[in-house]
Amino acid sequence: MLFRHNAVYYFVIFSYYCVMNIQTQYSYEKTWTDTNEKDLLRIIEEEIGDADPKGTLAYVTQTVKSGKTISVGSCKFRVKDSNGSKIKG
Q1: Is the separation of the CB atoms in 67 and 77 below 8 Å?
Q2: Which of 9, 17, 21, 72 could form a disulfide with 80 if both were Cys (CB 3.0 to 4.6 A apart)?
Q3: Global pTM?
């Protein structure tokens, strides 16, 4: 299951995130913004409240690494490739 609560699983997900560049875009924005892990957790926490933000970030990371865009509340997340554009899925 994706929302396992063990440190090794989160280490693997966050280690993978360090290689990826995740971008965010709120519904009222026209441009995508590169976002660091701390801000990703803050954004997710603001959007989902008291639910598990680390588990949600793990899910978002798993989803965007395949080139998909995912929405959490009013914020969209996607991965950026090394050329600065969205990875084609």
Answers
A1: no
A2: 21
A3: 0.70
